[in-house]
């Protein structure tokens, strides 16, 4: 499994293209591309590497993580997948963007599928398991590959930090429970690809994250 990282939009979201190198099938996690240059960068990478996009996944539906969902659907015909608990956030995307001084005028792309705890997302010979991690938002999800020791944590866990809980749907106690009961139990060598910022590991966060 190969991970290509892009950093998009003014809020600097990590958008991941996760590739099964044996088949060139891939998924996109948190399509944050906002302007035409960013959209072309993401789409160009998929086309230039002759990848077959199988899933568009969202760790959660705060606007900065799903700006590019409509572009990917229009370009590749693949609709976004996320938790039903976060679906109401789609109706407020323009208002969310305005709070951060971002102009967002695209139509919102509806979800194509709901994701639930322990769902398996398959692409080529690779797969990711869905882990529900509410707290940053009501429908927060993480995606985990046990075989490759990779975790895509969204805005639940960061390098030496955790997600904010002051946005609608946030709950600090729920977030801490998710972190301790769902993520900190994973093997220490698991690499964590966060929604913002650098890659870390579960072991490093167990030892040095001041919130845990």
- Biggest β-sheet strands, sense, barrel: 6 strands, mixed
Q: What class would the helix/strand composition place it in?
A: alpha/beta
Can you write the helix and strand succession as a string?
Answer: EEEHEHEHEEEEEEEHEEH
By CATH reckoning, the class would read Alpha Beta
Q: Mean pLDDT across all residues, rounded?
A: 97
Gap between N and C termini: 29 Å
- Major beta sheet, strand line-up: 1-2-3-4-5-6
Share in helix: 10-25%
Total number of beta strands: 14
Taking pLDDT < 50 over at least 5 consecutive residues as the criterion, the unreliable ranges are none
Characterization of the model:
The chain is an alpha/beta fold and 212 residues long. It has a single domain (2-208), classed as 4-Layer Sandwich (Metallo-beta-lactamase, Chain A), CATH 3.60.15. Helices cover 22% and strands 29% of the residues. It contains 5 helices and 14 strands. It has helices spanning 36-48, 69-76, 93-99, 172-183, 202-208, and strands spanning 2-8, 13-20, 25-29, 52-57, 80-82, 113-114, 120-123, 126-132, 141-145, 150-154, 157-158, 161-162, 191-194, 200-201. The chain has a 6-stranded mixed beta sheet. The protein has a 6-stranded mixed beta sheet with strand order 7-8-9-10-13-14. The protein has a two-stranded antiparallel ribbon with strand order 11-12. The longest helix is centred in the first third of the chain and has 13 residues, at 36-48. It is globular.
